[in-house]
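Moderator note: this is an archived Q&A kept for reference. The question asked for a predicted structure of one protein chain; the sequence and the answer are reproduced below.
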Amino acid sequence: MNIAVFASGRGTNFQEILKAIDSGFLSARVVLLLSNRSDAGALDIARSRGIACVHLSRLQCSSDEEFTQRMLAALQEQHAEFIALAGYLKRIPLPVIEQYANRIVNIHPALLPFFGGSGMYGHFVHEAVLASGMKISGATVHIVDDEYDHGIILFQKSVEIERGETAETLAKKVLNVEHEIFPLALKAFAEGKVVIEGKKAWIIR
């Protein structure tokens, strides 16, 4: 399975995907790293591995249509079959979602459907979770549709929120969970074990 990884930040989830491939756990290869930020650490990781890199921002384009076409062209040029959003902080254009229907997954640092949607990323998520008084948080892998943090949920894992927890300490705990479940989700797709019917999905064991 040829995977395109989209990332906006350091690329820790991207690194975990590469580790899963290197170890033989995940039978796939990353053919593209796309980022909306030219200074994203994920780009440096990709360059060090000889993986094709694209810095693509809406600000570089004169229209939404141009942005969409450039994104699709980058995916097609590298023969990407699947897209993994590994800390990508921008909305995916609808034509890309349609062309890769049920072949785009996102990792979110909370237990969806709670604490998702526009503006719910990074420390904002963890601060909102703590402010709510919740006793648990966690991470979610879901299929991407045309709404923020909305599509079919595939994997979730929770962590306990301890007394005195801060957004920083919670973020570290949740990130460990992200690193655990994201490769699992990609492995399930690579092995053809994800069954999707309408708005439901399950994993064949």
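Archived answer notes: Helices lie at 12-22, 41-48, 64-77, 94-99, 123-132, 167-190.
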